[in-house]
What we know:
The protein is mainly beta. Helices cover 13% and strands 33% of the residues. It has helices at 62-70, 74-83, 160-173, 205-213, 218-222, 225-232, 234-237, and strands at residues 15-25, 50-56, 88-96, 99-106, 113-124, 129-141, 144-152, 189-195, 272-278, 296-305, 317-325, 334-338, 348-354, 365-370, 381-384, 389-393, 396-401, 412-419, 424-428, 432-433. It is elongated and about 75 Å long.
Amino acid sequence: MATVNPRRPTEPSGRKLSIHVVTWNIASEAPPLDLNDLLQLNNQNLNLDMYVIGLQEMNCGIMSLLSDTAFEDPWSSFFMEVLSPLSFIKVSSVRMQGLLLLVFAKYQHLPFIQIISTKSIPTGFFGFWGNKGGVNICLKLYGYYVSIINCHLPPHVANNDQRLEHFDQILEMQNVGRHDIPNILDHDLILWFGDLNFRIEDFGLHFVRESIKNRCYTDLWQKDQLNIAKRQDPLLREFQEGPLRFPPTYKFDKNSDNYDTSEKKRKPAWTDRILWRLKRQPHAGSYTPKLPAPNFSLSLKSYISHMMYTISDHKPVSGTFDLEVKPVVFIPMITLMHEGLWTTENDILISYSSTPDFLSSPWDWIGLYKVGLRHINDYVSFVWVGDNQVSSNDGLNQVYINVNNIPETEDQFLLCYYSNSLQSVAGISNPFKIQPRVILQEDPPGEAQPQI
């Protein structure tokens, strides 16, 4: 029988996570065949740990919404199809009409990601219509609080005050009311991105286009409404952004690289943005500057647009970050072990241990997955830990999976323990193989037996 190792693991000095953030207003279009550049799949020097993907203007037709309710929407399916072979699993998602937010992580991080909440905040049509607004995923990552917001703010140059009002409204509606994080600003990290719809003031269409053509962006930066607002609003100033060294990402003729040639001739603008805010430490005096927490830091490695994609009137924007943390949580709440050699001829016995502070539930379950799973419900079999428990002794629990629920395949497998109270994976096993059953063939009747 497997035994629990009582020796506490050495506390890690720090961990670096590479996070790739994508925002794209897709103008109700289906995914193109190739998004390798957007996802940085061809970058051999990049070892990503997480993807955070925000889309705006998903297809909101009645038939499309009905289909997406019954099945995965085409974009979610596309990203899962591309990322699951690379060991990325969809951790969480939230959709509000045209807004979609997806979070993927490599499977080894799952026990250290706890989903706290998902929210939708509609701001269109007096706050009752979700064509504008924000969607949010709040999670704990290695013990730190992270809030991720994908939003679509009101359009047009003249509506800047309304954009800023919606920005404040979305922030206020994110307050989670927990004793540990009563306010959205109490999160260690806020990632805020989307089609923010800020425009370029004062300059005319010809000047803006000539500046873009000559790659002279300095004057345009000064008249960018978001940059102006940050100079005037103390709260907005706490949100950081990388340098805008790429051309404005709106508005293009679809299926081309030309800015808007329609009768409206929209003035180009940096509508698609990625911002972030780190929680500041309390300070003793009014003259002491506030600094980020010493055990939690974020650095921007790249902030670019992807101009080769032409399906939309917007170009996608991505930002790659290195998040360096000293983990508050570094031991999985559940450690999963499998007993001996697993075959498809017998029931499988699973052993697991838990940390002293873990609270189990009768609705907790253990899933058996093929390596390359797309999301937590992508199991080939599962068992309720309460119904299938064999023994519980000295912190070691045992459950079994019936042989009839074990597939006969050469694939590698994983076990995941899902906590119902945490709504998250509490433990994950190492990959393993299940040996197929051995079929003994009988000799044909009447055939001579070999002599020894």
